[in-house]
Amino acid sequence: MKRTITAAITAVALIVGFSGIPATAAPLPSNRVASAPLLAQAGWQQFSSTNGKFQVQLPSQPQQEQASDEIEGQKVDLHQFFSRNDAGGYLIVYADLPNSYTQKGSATVLEEMGSVMLMSMGAEVLEQRKQNISLSGNPGLEYRYEAAEGVFVMRLYLVRSRMYLLIGESEANNINQFLSSFQLL
């Protein structure tokens, strides 16, 4: 990858450092939270992003930010959603990648993005497991890793030229609910 997505790396730091997104981040008008959903984890909410074309369960209304960077000389907008509770943090990032970059093939794009994100953690990885996954027939990678800071699970999906990144740091049942609830709209 010619240039890393530094804004996405900053987003990952939100999970690692639990620094949160600044309170001044304004909600985007194209997103909504369903009213009174019945979810497995008490208090979790169904969150949908119309522009992002996804829905997911989160423990709280996510804070949102937008950033941009470049890949292969082309501007890439990053859309970040961060939710946390006492048990952990949950991050979703999506970005539409340049066609010139995705022409490398889904396996290469997912591997490169995964490597960049893992390196950005800046933590010593004690144990790491990686496996191929899919979402509605779209390729993905899942990384489960243990660092001194705790256990993290990261999933990347490539849906045509859109990359979705999900990261959870929490108890296993919370991470599983977060990841398994992610659906494309």
TrEMBL record:
Keywords: Signal
Signal peptide: 1-25
Top-rank taxon, per record: Bacteria
Name of the featured protein: DUF1795 domain-containing protein
Organism of this sequence: Planktothricoides sp. SpSt-374
